[in-house]
Design goal:
Blueprint lengths: L3 E4 L4 H12 L5 E4 H4 L3 H11 L26 H10 L8 E4 L2 E4 L16 E3 L5 E3 L13
Parallel strand pairs: 1-2
Antiparallel strand pairs: 1-3, 3-4, 5-6
């Protein structure tokens, strides 16, 4: 299975998601988007694949999103994309693409719905233990 993770190594959620993918036995293509940047076409495609508007991919915490006016009403998709291209940190993370779908994996457990094989037990870097019983399925990024 080909898995791509748009990853920020400075983000704990992104690091946990990457570790969960690797714990499933897969080695993903890792795109460090702060270095690689974004293209408008890729941002539009990812938002479409996730099934959410571009505004839903804005990260406001620790970014200049509020300062440049992206959080208000009436901001166009073109303005959002231009800001994301100029300031890649504005894009929320991590975004994971697999043959099963594309998702913003926040919380990191949301990645389990995209994996063929998921670890039964995973310990996040902060010590939180995530255990998945046989047959449990992720719904909207949460365990039932």
């Amino acid at each position: 299975m080909t898995i791509t993770i748009y990853h920020n190594p400075n983000c704990g959620t992104s690091r946990n998601t990457l570790a969960m993918i690797r714990a499933s036995g897969e080695e993903p293509v890792v795109v460090e988007y702060l270095e690689a940047g974004w293209s408008p076409d890729l941002l539009r495609a990812l938002a479409d694949q996730i099934g959410k508007p571009l505004k839903a991919l804005i990260r406001d915490k620790g970014t200049p999103a509020a300062d440049i006016g992206l959080l208000g009403e009436g901001v166009s998709d073109d303005d959002i994309i231009a800001a994301m291209v100029e300031h890649p940190i504005i894009v929320n993370r991590p975004i994971v693409v697999t043959p099963k779908g594309t998702a913003l994996c926040r919380p990191s457990e949301a990645v389990f719905a995209l994996l063929d094989h998921r670890p039964v037990r995973f310990v996040k870097e902060d010590g939180e233990v995530v255990e998945i019983a046989e047959g449990e399925v992720m719904t909207e990024g949460r365990l039932p």
